[in-house]
């Protein structure tokens, strides 16, 4: 076992770097245990993970984080969650904790749990709130109990849909336009809602 403390840094054979306050490497199990201000950077696959503690299982090509975790992925996505599993070989990110994912098109997703297939730009989650044009005018809110979203072309399918449309769509801020449906599917241009109900009544 190799232990380093104070601004520790490890580099694997694929040029991934792990920096932390304390780094423990078990040569027998081939597991790296990093604690305190942990950063994992992979320049080739273009991701940066920041957390307080993680285990890197080199033989399984798997990273487990403990506590709050933030990741910047492919210069397109920012993820914030807890206790994240990152399967490096399949490029899948998994969390059973509440997660926020924001893309570089000002769309944000809040999920109770998720699987993110990074190579396919495919997001699967439960109890989802997604907001278009986040913090910008003409922003809509979509609520789903579960769904699958292609973050590249914006195609999606989801269950138990509720949509809150921005108030000014009918030029009257007193309205609260909302749509409910048992399921929905759509893309960046249109949304189809099954068994939908529409109302503009105030809440």
Distance between the termini: 61 Å
How would you describe the oligomerization state of the chains in this entry? single chain
Give the biggest sheet. 8 strands, antiparallel, barrel
How much helicity do the residues have?
under 10%
Strand content: over 45%
Low-confidence stretches: none
**Strand and helix order:** EEEEEEEEEEEEEEEEE
Textual characterization of the structure:
The protein is mostly beta strands and 203 residues long. Helix content is 0%, strand content 63%. The protein has no helices and 17 strands. The protein has an eight-stranded antiparallel barrel with strand order 5-6-9-10-12-11-8-7. β11 (113-117) and β12 (122-131) form a beta hairpin. The chain is elongated, with a radius of gyration of 20 Å. The protein starts with a strand and ends with a strand. The relative contact order is 0.08. The mean pLDDT is 86.
